[in-house]
Description:
- The protein is mainly α.
- The protein has a domain at 19-51.
- 86% of the residues lie in helices and 0% in strands.
- It has helices at residues 2-10, 13-17, 20-49.
- The chain starts with a helix and ends with a helix.
- The mean pLDDT is 86.
- Keywords: Plasmid.
Amino acid sequence: MLELIDWIRHGELIHKLSSPYLWLSFVAMRIAIEYFFAGLAKMEHVSGDHE
């Protein structure tokens, strides 16, 4: 949190937010979450068939 305040104070936050690595990590996180929830839905569907 203090590091974030320091970035804002020194004007580095814009450089951090415009970094392509930040946006690539957001995209990777989004894909991982999508696969995670798709896997959960598939497991729920499979376990529901046996009842």
